[in-house]
Design a protein that fits this description.
Shape: globular
Largest sheet: 2 strands, antiparallel
Strand order of the largest sheet: 1-2
Order of helices and strands: HHHEHHHHEHHHHHH
Radius of gyration: 22 Å
Length: about 325
């Protein structure tokens, strides 16, 4: 179908171009930080096993950042080519950034829930955690997160096809590209899951504080604190901006709405600094990686064997249990 409506005057188009430059800058910085995180996680087998979830979190952040770069650059080019006009919802999926926004938005939300659930089990059911939450199970849960994100993308394409006769805004946000129903469904995951993860991590943190009578539980307390921080950042920088984006133009019109995608994108960049300051072994590995090993002489890389820690905790818990006659 033909969609010829013009949504913006020249001043508005100039503003979109300026925002596009900001989006490309924010997106490039965020993509670089997430690529760096993934390289550090993949640099050794030990880091991959210990921080696999964080690596997947960074993958989602990188996809979201790439979507922001593409949105800013292609919108700018369309404006310069006088091609920035109304189009159908399904035609919006001919532009690449909705794919990246859907997967890059939902994948980190699923991973946050997995991380929070793992911490709850580790605190309140430590024997079950050390026995059954193995590296293989972690890989399976990571794969499930990826599959769920891809399935959600396919559902979004289907809803976009159903709206193929509806002309929409050329910004082609997820809501415009798929329709209000799927846009709400998409935001349900991106907004609600970080809040649930924050609640679970808060429960785990309180439980760990009450039970921190052993070295192993103190170690779990540090892990919970990191997961809690990541969930809190996601609520502030991901969930809240997406609420504003979802309702923009329908329930409210706020001036800062065009900048919310950049706040959403910056969430994953901030995660790098949270991990850097809160995880000593990750910090040392990152410094070693970016210095090509030059800084190794100034500190010792802390290589903590996860399986060893697993055995130590099981042994510690077993020693605290009363002997059976």
């Amino acid at each position: 179908m033909e969609c010829n409506a013009t949504y913006y005057n020249n001043a508005s188009l100039a503003n979109i171009i300026n925002i596009g430059y900001l989006q490309m800058s924010f997106g490039s910085l965020t993509a670089a930080t997430n690529i760096l995180c993934m390289l550090v996680v993949l640099s050794t087998k030990q880091m991959s096993r210990k921080y696999g979830n964080f690596g997947l979190l960074s993958l989602g952040g990188m996809l979201n950042a790439l979507g922001l770069i593409l949105a800013g650059s292609i919108r700018k080019k369309l404006i310069y080519d006088n091609s920035y006009g109304s189009l159908s919802s399904f035609a919006c999926f001919g532009r690449p950034w909705p794919y990246f926004f859907i997967v890059g938005g939902q994948l980190p939300a699923f991973v946050l829930i997995v991380m929070a659930g793992e911490r709850v089990i580790a605190i309140f059911k430590p024997i079950i955690y050390r026995t059954y939450v193995t590296p293989r199970i972690r890989v399976i849960t990571d794969i499930i997160c990826i599959i769920l994100s891809i399935l959600s993308l396919l559902i979004g394409i289907f809803f976009s096809y159903l709206n193929r006769d509806i002309c929409t805004n050329p910004t082609c946000t997820t809501v415009y590209a798929t329709g209000r129903l799927y846009g709400t469904f998409n935001n349900f995951f991106i907004v609600l899951l970080p809040f649930i993860a924050l609640l679970l991590n808060t429960m785990a943190y309180i439980g760990a504080k009450r039970l921190s009578v052993s070295t192993n539980m103190e170690r779990e307390l540090k892990k919970v604190l990191v997961s809690l921080m990541l969930a809190a950042l996601a609520v502030v920088l991901s969930a809240l901006p997406n609420i504003i984006i979802w309702g923009q133009g329908v329930y409210w019109n706020v001036v800062i709405a065009p900048y919310m995608n950049m706040a959403f994108c910056s969430n994953s960049a901030v995660n790098l600094f949270a991990f850097f300051f809160m995880r000593k072994d990750f910090r040392y590995r990152l410094l070693s990686f970016i210095s090509f090993g030059y800084l190794n002489r100034y500190f010792k890389l802390s290589e903590v064997i996860d399986t060893k820690a697993r055995q130590n905790m099981v042994q510690s818990i077993g020693n605290n249990q009363p002997a059976r006659s």
